[in-house]
Amino acid sequence: MSLSDCRFIQMPKVSDVRGNLTYIESNNQIPFDIRRVYYIYDVPGGSERGSHAHRSLHQFVVAMSGSFDVVLHDGETEKRFHLNRSYSGLYVCPMMWRTLDNFSSGSVCMVLASEFYAESDYIRDWDKFVDLAN
Ligand code: TYD
């Protein structure tokens, strides 16, 4: 998989006078089975999250409220994505170094993940990541 596989995916939005409803189903709107959901919130201004890669984890990142950036790096090329819609999310394939920054105040970042939490899936060292990615 490559950086070009990492893309915004628009989810269905059911709108009526009562407001909007968006849904996400495993292997339907997103290309993997969802095993875990986590979210990041109350991020102090100027903070960065992430700065690691995953060996085999697929993720789908949604700005449920507010906005932030996801910067993806495949070891050669970097791409910055601005997330600010709760009906559009970013699919992040395995072996992408990711950093999240530029959080607006009150933003909430929800992540759907293909596996349970496993520290052994993380690559937290940049040089090791570049070695493995090439
Ligand atoms: P980490 O993934 O490093 O956070 P971020 O990438 O946002 O900076 O996780 C931070 C801590 O939270 C780390 O000690 C592991 C723990 N954690 C879990 O226990 N379960 C999870 O699902 C996640 C994502 C993290």
Explain what you see:
The protein has one helix spanning 126-133, and strands spanning 8-10, 13-16, 19-22, 36-40, 49-54, 59-65, 68-73, 78-83, 88-92, 97-101, 108-113, 122-123. It has 134 residues and is mostly beta strands. The chain has a single domain (3-133), classed as Jelly Rolls (Sandwich), CATH 2.60.120.10. Strands 1-9-6-11-4 form a five-stranded antiparallel beta sheet, with no helix packed on it. A five-stranded antiparallel beta sheet has the order 8-7-10-5-12. Strands 2-3 form a two-stranded antiparallel sheet. Strand 7 and strand 8 form a beta hairpin. 22% of the residues are buried. Bound molecules: thymidine-5'-diphosphate (TYD). Residues 36, 38, 40, 49-50, 117 line the site of thymidine-5'-diphosphate.
Q: What is the CATH topology assignment? A: Jelly Rolls
How many domains would you count in the coordinates? 1
Mean pLDDT: 97
Which distinct ligands sit in these coordinates?
Answer: thymidine-5'-diphosphate
Q: What's the tally of helices?
A: 1
Largest sheet entry? 5 strands, antiparallel
Oligomer: single chain
Alpha-beta classification: mainly beta
CATH class: Mainly Beta
Strand/helix succession: EEEEEEEEEEEEH
Proportion of residues in extended strands: 35-45%
* Rg result: 15 Å
The tally of beta strands, per DSSP, is 12
Report the uncertain regions: none
Strand order of the largest sheet: 1-9-6-11-4
Helicity range of the residues? under 10%
Going by CATH, the homologous superfamily would be Jelly Rolls
By CATH, the architecture is named Sandwich
Question: How far apart, in Å, are the first and last alpha carbons?
Answer: 13 Å
Which of globular, elongated, flat, extended, rod-shaped describes the shape? globular
